[in-house]
Amino acid sequence: LPSTYTVNVASPSGVAPNMITACMNDAGLIDTDSDGVKDSIDPRHNPQYSQFCYVFQYMPGGTTYLDTPVQQIAAFAGSGFQLDCEIADTTPMVESVMAGVLNGPYVASSSATDRTLAITSPGARDVPNPSASELDVDRLVSRDYGFGTVEGEAWLRPLEMWQGAASGGSDVQLDIGTGDWTNLQISAEVPAGTTRGRYQLEIVHDNGNVSQMGVTVMVGPMPLNGRDVIQVSPSSNPNVHPIQDALDAARRGDVILVGPGTYDEIPVMYEP
Known about the structure:
Layout: E1 18-24, E2 29-30, E3 40-41, E4 52-58, E5 96-99, E6 106-107, E7 116-120, E8 124-128, E9 140-144, E10 153-161, E11 172-173, E12 175-181, E13 185-189, E14 197-204, E15 216-219, E16 229-232, H1 242-249, E17 255-258
């Protein structure tokens, strides 16, 4: 790793170390299409072992033998037996939900003009191959987590009805028009008159499989205690921090919707 040429600092050698963060078994996203967009997990990541990052100093001409504490975190790790903990093939998975021009799953009210939800699936995703051994080349296998090409069902399951709601919530089936259901995306509408509150989105594949990882959909207006919805969008300016600004401006109970993109900041959340 590169050291540094910075000298004459207040250290015994007079040389400033280069501080680099090293990550072992990192599952961070990589660009597999050479389009500049990081959209795939590093295929060399092994989920049977822990991820570990730490900062260490690197000096000119120095060699240091470092301990890399990557631990076994799965049953039978390294034995050649791959424990299958991934969701089964052809089980629908929700990757994101956008409502109209908003950055997330929030509908202003059940009487709003635009009550359409754009529901996206990850489609095919590479997961550890349960049939592969440590020496096999095909360590990953593809599974389809799409919604299916034949229209199924989309439901809102009530979680919490907000103050001022006319009555208790009940299961709500979303309206889906002809041609608005594909394997990768569903365009569905929240029915008029839906009780305001928080719901869990549930997708039912035409084969009967039900999504196991949900997204909370909020149907407004927000409760009557002054809550608000704050939208956050990415910026090309590296010196701004829109997520932190939204956290600083938010009051107790507000909802912050963070749009997709890259945010070069480390936000601190210090209030409910």
